[in-house]
Amino acid sequence: MPVFKLTIEYDGTTFSGWQEQPGQRTIQGVLKKALTTILRHPVMLQGASRTDAGVHAIGQTASFHTNIDVEPQRLVKGLSALCRPGVAVVNAEIVHDEFNARFAAQGKHYKYQILNRSAASPLIGSVSWHVPRLLDLKLMQEAANLMVGTHDFNGFRAADCGRENTVRTLTHVGVERTDKDVIVITVKGTAFLKYMVRIISGTLVEIGLKKLPVDTPEKVFASKDRSLAGQTAPARGLTLIKVYYK
Questions:
Q1: What pairs with residue 168 in β-bridges?
Q2: Phi and psi based region of residue 40 (left: phi greater than 0; alpha: psi -120 to 50; beta: remaining)
Q3: Taking the chain, what is the end-to-end CA distance rounded to the nearest angstrom?
Q4: Count of C-beta atoms within a 10 Å radius of residue 195
Q5: 52 is catalytic
Q6: Is pTM, for the whole model, over 0.70?
Q7: pLDDT tens sequence across 95-152
Q8: pLDDT digits (tens, 9 = 90+) for 130-142
Q9: 172 DSSP β-pair partners
């Protein structure tokens, strides 16, 4: 059976995350319902990243099998029409039969957006974390550099994260002011733990506010102690930008 790979964009504000859950409105649930309508058979939809409730994406990917002969462009139009508002399928393509969006992923790119000014914003409030106090960008950048490489991120994960292996490799952690009032944290890596990017972002913000020392990442890596890291940043500021494949 042909395997389709979808590239998906969504505003996670009103969704209970990616993962399908009984009685909850989720990205996966909405897409599966739309696919069943178009293909006239149930599908198993595998997402590359199980984003949390409130998290957004412009480059989420998912895969599924079907024995129905359907043009990729028809899928793009049909799914986007059935899933709006909030979800859009921006690309569909037929890939090799063994492809699995989750297990074939080689890495992911996330962006965390911070509105750094005294007044909140009615325009980007749903896609950013409002931090009214001025952040020290240089301190955040210095701490971000300490996170690049292979480390034990046990202290940068949720308490209920079930992964046994907590060693992860980050290829890039950047902090830049993209606008007078907007700071963006960019994180790229091969794999991530639950809440890992949000805890990294929360830690960098507390360093930028001078609530934590700049060498906090090194202390957390050495101790594996979650209490030494910063808070878990709100979900609304996080966006999955891209999933990388060979």
A1: 151
A2: left
A3: 22
A4: 21
A5: yes
A6: yes
A7: 999 999 999 999 999 999 999 999 999 999 999 999 999 999 999 999 999 999 999 9
A8: 999 999 999 999 9
A9: 188
- φ, ψ at 99 (rounded to 5°): -65, 135
CATH value of 3-95 in 3.30.70.580, 3.30.750.24, 2.60.40.10, 3.60.20.10 = 3.30.70.580
Both tokens of 126, joined, read 């749903």
Report which residue type is found at 39.
L
C-alpha closest to that of 6 among 22, 23, 30, 25: 30
* CA–CA dist 164, 35 (Å, integer): 34
Task: Specify the fold of 107-244.
Answer: Alpha-Beta Plaits (3.30.70)
CA dist list (Å): 37 to 31, 79, 82:
10, 9, 9
**Beta strand pairing status for 3-10 and 87-95?**
antiparallel
Residue tagged active-site, from 11, 52, 136, 152: 52
- What is the Cα–Cα distance from 64 to 146, expressed in whole angstroms? 39
How do the domains of the chain map onto residue ranges? 3-95, 107-244
Domains 3-95 and 107-244 share a fold: yes
